[in-house]
Write a structure and sequence with these properties.
Blueprint (H helix, E strand, L loop, with lengths): L3 H20 L9 H6 L1 H25 L7 H15 L1 H10 L4 H29 L4 H6 L3 H19 L1 H16 L4 H5 L3
Helix pairs in contact: 1-3, 1-4, 1-5, 3-5, 3-9, 4-6, 5-6, 6-8, 6-9, 8-9
Length: about 190
């Protein structure tokens, strides 16, 4: 099967995820700086989640450039990833409404952890489908960021149980790590 439908569907779902998140933002009830300040935790959780969804879209886009055909396992692995990403608007909203809560920090971190695991499953499924000489395997190499991210998410979850702000800072750290452009796939593909 060609990859076009998988790309189009994934792009559509990610666009809907971002749309749902932005629709959760509400203007303050009063036109004051204090009213705006009250919305800051909600905006910060939205901003962090927007960055995460953008990182996933960007990496997904690059990863699919290594793929010419998809099979059933790749389709299901992609759906698995989209499922976990689709929970981000819920966890974002909940965390924004209840900043510095251990429960919301843990649940948010869990949604990020499972999204990372699902991305690794998709990546490994594509590599298996490509067989020997996998372009994606060649491009990802040792994949340090991919392997360390789940460890940092678990650390963030555990820190959220003790001090939610430290857990949140761990999630920000992972996002910052992924914001640094990763050119491995671009360097591997023919120009």
């Amino acid at each position: 099967m060609q990859k076009n439908r998988l790309e189009a569907f994934s792009d559509g779902v990610l666009a809907i995820i971002i749309t749902i998140m932005v629709l959760e933002l509400r203007a303050p009830h009063e036109a004051t700086w204090e009213g705006l300040k009250d919305q800051l935790p909600i905006f910060c959780s939205y901003l962090l989640s927007f960055v995460y969804v953008a990182i996933y879209w960007n990496n997904h886009h690059h990863m699919l450039h290594t793929v010419h055909h998809v099979n059933g396992p790749v389709l299901w692995a992609n759906i698995h990833l989209l499922f976990w990403l689709s929970l981000i608007p819920f966890t974002t909203s909940w965390m924004g409404e209840h900043p510095l809560s251990s429960v919301t920090g843990v649940v948010y971190g869990f949604s990020l952890l499972m999204s990372a695991v699902a991305y690794m499953v998709l990546q490994n499924t594509i590599i298996r489908s490509q067989g020997e000489g996998s372009v994606l395997r060649q491009a990802t190499g040792k994949d340090f960021k991919g392997k360390i991210s789940p460890v940092l998410y678990i650390a963030g979850i555990l820190l959220s149980l003790v001090q939610p702000l430290l857990g949140d800072l761990m999630y920000v750290l992972v996002a910052l790590m992924w914001l640094i452009p990763d050119r491995r796939i671009e360097k591997t593909l023919p120009h």
